[in-house]
Amino acid sequence: MELLSGADMIARFLQDEGVEYIYGYPGGAALHIYDALFRQDKVKHILVRHEQAATHAADGYARASGKPGVVLVTSGPGATNAVTGIATAYMDSIPMVVLCGQVMSHLIGDDAFQETDIVGVTRPIVKHSFSIRHPSEIPEVLKKAFYLAATGRPGPVVVDIPKDMTAPTERYEYVYPKKVKLRSYNPVTRGHTGQIKKAVEMMLKAKRPVFYTGGGVVTGKASEGLTDLVKQLGFPITTTLMGIGAYPQSDRQCLGWLGMHGSYESNMAMHHADLIIAIGARFDDRVTNNTSKFCPTAKIIHVDVDPSSVSKTVRADVPIVGPASSVINEMISLVQGQSIAQPEALAEWWQKIDGWRAEREGKLYEPSKPGDVLKPQEVVEALCRVTRGEAYVTTDVGQHQMFAAQYYKFDKPNRLITSGGLGTMGFGFPAAMGIKQNFPDDDVVCVTGEGSFQMMMQELSTCKQYGVGVKIVNLNNASLGMVRQWQDLNYKSRHAHSYMESLPDFHMLIEAYGFTAMTVNTLDELEPALERAFANKHELVFLDVKVDPHEHVYPMQVPLGAMRDMLLSKTERT
Amino acid sequence: MRHIISILMENEPGALSRVVGLFSQRNFNIETLNVAPTEDPSLSRLTVTTIGDDRVIEQITKHLNKLIDVVKLVDLTEGNHIERELMLVKVKALGAARDEVKRTVDIFRAQIVDVTPSLYTVQITGDASKLDAFLQAMAPVGILEVARTGVSGIARGDKVLSL
Ligand SMILES: Cc1ncc(C[n+]2csc(CCOP(=O)(O)OP(=O)(O)O)c2C)c(N)n1
Ligand SMILES: [Mg+2]
Questions:
Q1: Looking at the domain assignment, is residue B108 inside a domain?
Q2: Are residue B74 and residue B93 in the same domain, yes or no?
């Protein structure tokens, strides 16, 4: 039997749980814990420069690795700074455990110095939260927190730890709990066999089927199964932004991604389908456009591990509650040896789809003319070539995010790391940092905009401290491009506060931290600069790429319309 | 339609606020809410009446079930059930109205539980519509104060909501 203080229990638990990195920032209420971390060397603590960055870094790591990210912050402002990152993880169902210091338990409620009811503040944006009421419960509560964060539909869990719970003078028995049980929490382990059979029968009979798969396939580690199933059936597949890479995008059956800025062929196929097989996707408003006009001829099979996602916005004809991986595997075994009832219909369907593809081929954007300012799309295409489509690509939020998702081709899951649900500017750079530390031999690049980058650029200092060699590609259009686009479309180009005046000289800024920066103005400078940037895996390089501020992201669904109602360029619409 | 949802939840600090928070967060409506411990000290029972179409009610029950603190849940309105609410009400009772109030109290099988020269305090139990009807009957006399517990309910027959 081992007697440990609450603080030492936390450090020991993290070791026993196999946590390698935690991201955090110290302060009064967390100091006992920091001292315990100091006296061990298994768990590495990364000191960020803002608590929001700690959550995004842990989140990035979680998305890339599939394991919970871990954050440690102090009470009050430390905890409130973490809120945006917790909400970001919540919206995208990312496993994360956030340990928050809290004022001494006898002071709670007194408006003590740096007291915030962080359990209350985060209640709507966590999967669950705990407050420690006695040091002896620390191991079990932490185990529950990790278990909840990572199982079922994953999500962030907050653990509030009053300072006296970690006092070095009080010691209690520590045993690492290998398992915990929560009587009210039993995530489903498989779908209803009868429903799965019914779904497969419909799939085999369908004339115009399409798979529509989301982040649930990625977090549910079901990409291989999905790829098998889709290939066996020969159906087209479109994914959500969060589901990109779960099926190889370079494969002919992949139509790209769907929704507001999804591909023309994806949205057209959805609209005309007679069967939609939705897996780990949640029919959110950025996908469906107007739900009352959504896919009028389609029957819907909806597989999701979270029952509350099924039939939330669009009614499912065949609801299946279960983890993507086990449901897909059951589907595969049912499909095996069977043949499609109407192969001619499917062939015709493919003809139609190929027709849609051909319509837009070569027309997605107008490349820059020699000597002209670059188009952001061609920068992303060049980035994809230089990194052979194999990098971890994180993004911030805005036009550059959409361009990164549209023009980088992802053949693997967990490679596009983007804040889809909350759309958090500032996410990309710290997320890249978290990934790079855990995958030091991979290329990790943050595609950002000058607006977003400035929200978290203090993390350059963290990268300097730990030698984090991420690449940053700043698609610098000197404006809040996505806002500007909406103003062009809806406010007669009245650019209210979407213009970034007095941008810093990014070159000098980056050099102030001792890193390499390059400015790119023209096409002939682009690829050589990218090649140089990626030549050394362990060096942070910032590319400030000046791009056309007038460019818009297309396709763009017409508000309140159907899936197929899209603007295709500044002058064309469906 | 009106639904009565009964929940067994962990008797933990914060559990109630998660349930109530869910309703406001997701724009669900709460008509009445009632919560108290059960015979099992680790559980409390919460009953909420809410109004919504089938889609909304389905979402409410699914989201409630997702809360880690919610152990079990039943929509009582799906089957035969008993619904009760308790109300304490102070009504003016002066002159001729004193007898009038007394008669109405008897008709509703309510009880007068406290008396002063100018008012009666009446206790009445029943389903929500009975309580509403009593209030309507008392309105002309003068209602001074109303305290209702909110609806509590239980299924009829052998069905039991327990672990
Ligand atoms: C934290 C936060 N604030 C505001 C917004 C709204 N917003 C969405 S895109 C955008 C502009 C982003 O500008 P930039 O990073 O330069 O990217 P660009 O669109 O120019 O590529 C804004 C302000 C947001 N998504 N996140
Ligand atoms: Mg910009």
A1: yes
A2: no
Band (A1; pLDDT cuts 50, 70, 90): confident
> What tokens appear for A407 in the block?
């023009």
| A561 is a domain residue | no
Query: Residue A371: its pLDDT value, please?
Result: 87
Does the pLDDT at position B93 exceed 90? yes
What is the separation of C-alpha A134 from the centre of its chain, rounded to a whole number of angstroms? 35
ipTM for the complex? 0.92
Ligand found nearest the CA of A398: 1
Asked if B25 and B67 sit in the same domain, the reply is: yes
- The CATH number linked to A323 is 3.40.50.1220
Same domain, B116 and B87: yes
Confidence of residue A525 (pLDDT cuts 50, 70, 90): very high
Q: Do B70 and A184 touch (CB under 8 A)?
A: yes
- Which tokens is A220 given? 């549910």
Q: Is A113 a catalytic residue?
A: yes
Nearest CB among B9, B14, B69 relative to A119 is that of B14
Query: Are B94 and B68 in the same domain?
Result: no
CA–CA gap between residue A449 and residue A458 (Å, rounded):
15
Chain A positions in Cβ-Cβ contact with residue B55 (cut-off 8 Å): 311, 315
State the pLDDT at residue A370. 87
Q: Are A233 and A353 within one domain?
A: yes
Say which CATH number the domain at B21 has: 3.30.70.260
| DSSP E strand stretches across B43-118 | 43-51, 70-75, 81-92, 111-115
- Residue A507's identity, in one-letter code, is H
Q: Could you list the residue range(s) of the whole structural domain that residue B58 is in? A: 2-79
pLDDT, residue A545, reads 98
- How confident is the model at residue B163, as a pLDDT? 85
Q: How many CA atoms lie within 13 A of A519 on its CB side?
A: 12
Alpha-carbon span A565 to A560, nearest angstrom: 9
Q: Please answer yes or no on whether B55 and A315 come within 8 Å at the CB atom.
A: yes
